[in-house]
Amino acid sequence: MRCVICFESVLPEVNWTNFLLVQKEVKLCTTCFEKFDVITEPGCPLCGRADSSGVCYDCERWEGSSYQGVLTKNVSVFSYNDFARELVARWKYRGDFTLIEAFAEAAQTKYKNYFQMMEADLVAIPLSKERLLERGFNQSDALITLLGVSPHRFLKRRGSEKQSKKGRSERLLGENPFILVKPTERPVVLVDDIYTTGMTVRHLALLLREAGCPEVYSFTLFR
Amino acid sequence: MKAGDAMLKRFKKNPSSNFPPFQSFPEDSPYQFLSGKILTQTELPLPVEELQLLEEQSLVMKLPSLTNTRSTWQCHRCGTDKPYFFARFPHAGCRKKCTYCRNCIMMGRVMECEPLYWFSPLAVWKKHHSPCQWEGELTNAQSNAAEHIVLAIEKREELLVWAVCGAGKTEMLFPGLTYALRQGMRVCLATPRTDVVRELFPRLTSSFPEVEIQALYGDSEEKSGSAQLLMATTHQLYRYSQAFDVMIIDEIDAFPFHNDDSLKWAAKRAAKDHASQIYLTATPRKKEKRRIRQKQLPTVFIPSRFHGYPLPVPTLKLVTTLRSRLSKGTLPKSILQRIFNQQTGKRQLLIFASTIQYAENIKGILSSRLLVSSVHAEDPARADKILAFRNRELDVLVTTTILERGVTFPSVDVFVIDAGHQVFDEAALVQIAGRAGRSHKDPDGEVIFFHSGKTNAMFEAQEAIHQMNIKAKNQ
């Protein structure tokens, strides 16, 4: 076995349990595994960031705006540390799709704990056609597939602007770049790679809620 | 695509006799900047119509990017055929499960469904009448090596230049470069380390002011890589095929080149089949040493520094509490005392630490009393910090092995903290010791290896330096 991130060979320790039972496939070496910062206790109950006690400043601002109550809650798997930043760059922008395996186990566990009981529909963040062809895949589609579910397509993107190149205020002032294709009356979980300002998921959530969706959550890899 | 397939097979079987039927770029062609390059579809800087035009003129060929052999794949950009570097993904472009290469993913994705574009390596390069404006003079040892280099370029042969740290390797290349540029050859000076490119580039441009020279590395401003004289990190060679008449590789024993077959493959392919290959090193690895012994690799040996003074021989200092102190995030008192004593002298201090964490800890400990900074490979401010140290804005620079080679500071003492750590192999320690006493004005320097138990690497490094000094004396 090789580590899916650094390609070092991983030698699983042999003990009676893994000698007798079918082994779980090891995807990561210990060095890479330890560089992940798994969020065990969300500090902010709304956006799930770890470095906050109680509702954080950003969420307070959201709840005092016209987006009040639009997004019920965000759940994230890892903190967005330097290591995560590098991985996301390699995964999404260089296009190393298989890196998704590095996130699999933690993401599946987290998803199970928070959302499995809920009977919600999973919705990916739509990409513009140009961006999809440039990257070769839609990262939130890939994540939903990783969770063993098939994504619903309730929404579409209008323009083709890159969110990550914009500052917070620019993002907040921008027009809603999405349009609703199909309304739903079941709860929805939006799945994305990163929750940064929370604007993207709220744009989508607003459209869904206006058309009768009872509750919108978001589930992201990094916060 | 099919033609490309067959061609590649022929090309691989017998590279010299079956060179594809390329045409040469006409003189003053606006596309000459593409000569010798291998690019992916997304890297193409041309609209489709222009590409088609070039294709009709046999100035570009499509090659399969990944080929499937019986048991595995091979990537034709980076050459790797190790199965674990290949993965498949649902590609939105071709709507299939598409194989891609993970070895060279940091240079952009190479996919099964998209070909590579190889631009004709045939082009006319300028013949410079007198390109070299350097006014310094070579020492006897340097000019002897320089003559060998000129000869190797003339005869298109292989040559290893084994020169101690501070022998003045760059200047030795000048006569060879001059010869090549006069003949209208295309030259690549490649090295595994970005810092080495950054350091050499200004020296080359000032010595060859009329020649178009470019420096190419991961985050370089210059991206085109179209110059007649190209300086590049070895990774950039993935993007060339049969492009250079002379391939010079500086620091061939450095990480990551020395243990990466894919980079070696790329360096070979980037040079023409009859190109002259010149390797420079101060610390050849076992493989090269064996080839030298077996007389398979022509070698020229320069055991003395350009200023004629001997190499500083490292002293070993045993500090038994070293490792326990380091793990607590502190330094033993005796070492601290040494550092503060050293600082009362005129020289700056370069400290090598085994890991990034220790480098930062040591910086933290010293920062209350000294102007100190620390650098490591992923440090975004690395180049600035090195410059600040060179400009004497810092007293002490704490570094990982990233600065073991290629960088010159005029007057430093060098301390290695925990020299017994595995990152410090013989080559690394010889290189590190070679940072001291580089300048004519201050040809000496103190080199201390602090350790908590002698290793073979320390002993061998000390011995190698000692041997060099004896050879230099007897010369």
From TrEMBL, chain A:
Report the leader peptide range: none
Q: Which InterPro entries would you find in this protein's record? A: ComF/GntX_DNA_util-trans, PRTase-like, PRTase_dom
Query: Which family does the entry's similarity section mention?
Result: Belongs to the ComF/GntX family.
- What name is this protein filed under? Amidophosphoribosyltransferase
* Lineage of origin: Bacteria, Bacillati, Bacillota, Bacilli, Bacillales
